[in-house]
Design a protein that fits this description.
This protein is α+β, with helices and mostly antiparallel strands. Helix 2 crosses helix 4 and helix 2 packs antiparallel against helix 5. The longest helix is centred in the C-terminal third of the chain and has 40 residues. It folds into 2 domains: 93 residues, no CATH class; 129 residues, no CATH class. The strands form 2 sheets. The protein has a 4-stranded antiparallel beta sheet, covered by helices on one side. 61% of the residues lie in helices and 15% in strands.
């Protein structure tokens, strides 16, 4: 029954479109050749203006997104492990956040984390040293993050993650790779931002769009009043 209803609705819609097109053709054929030509031109101008407006909006949007991405202090979010969030240019830890430049990350397990934190606790974590994880059971894995602007520890529970060790090493590698990449990218970012700003200015040039708008408006003005009112002015 449901299928029959759907088919009936489709038939009604298609029939309606056919009738509408037929009536429109009848109206068009009744116009003088000059008005037919003017109406066809107006429809073409409308399509051209809409196409140009869409291209303009897309061009400006892409240029703005590119500039915003370059200016973003953190950059794209890359990975989140054990309470530590890694971005392209930034890293957030339970003990603090800061630039990724100069950061070094190392993975550790239960057998080495106590010695590592005891030796580097004050140097690496400062006043947050007491918040660093202590040795406990459960086969946890850790990633020690240390840099000029931030130090902290990611804790990966061995109870909830049977792959805690490999995940810790993978995350440490990701942090180190991001730090190296950002160190290189940071040196050229001011120039990249300047280029992106110029690209946005260029993309925002709407001379072509204004020209298409004027042509479309002129085409509407050339129509008889009863036909012109069916077109929305740009």
């Amino acid at each position: 029954m449901k299928t029959v209803v759907i088919v009936a609705v489709i038939v009604v819609i298609v029939s309606g479109l056919v009738i509408w097109k037929y009536l429109e053709k009848q109206k068009f054929d009744a116009l003088s050749p000059e008005v037919q030509q003017a109406l066809t031109l107006t429809k073409d101008r409308k399509k051209s203006y809409k196409r140009k407006a869409k291209e303009y909006d897309q061009r400006v949007k892409v240029a703005q997104l590119t500039l915003d991405a370059l200016k973003d202090q953190k950059g794209r979010r890359l990975k989140n492990v054990g309470g530590v969030v890694l971005f392209e240019r930034w890293i957030e830890t339970p003990q603090g956040s800061g630039s990724i430049i100069g950061v070094k990350a190392t993975a550790a397990d239960e057998s080495s984390i106590k010695q590592r934190l005891t030796a580097t606790r004050i140097v690496a974590l400062g006043v947050f040293a007491l918040a660093a994880p202590k040795k406990s059971g459960g086969g946890n894995a850790y990633v020690v993050v240390d840099g000029p602007k931030v130090s902290g520890v990611a804790t990966i529970s061995g109870k909830s993650n049977t792959n805690a060790g490999p995940d810790a090493f993978a995350f440490a590698a990701a942090v180190n790779n991001a730090a190296r990449a950002e160190e290189i990218a940071a040196s050229t970012r001011p120039r990249d931002i300047e280029c992106a700003s110029k690209a946005l200015t260029q993309a925002s040039d709407n001379a072509d769009l204004v020209r298409e708008k004027d042509l479309y408006s002129a085409a509407i003005d050339a129509l008889p009043a009863e036909l012109a009112q069916s077109f929305a002015r740009p």
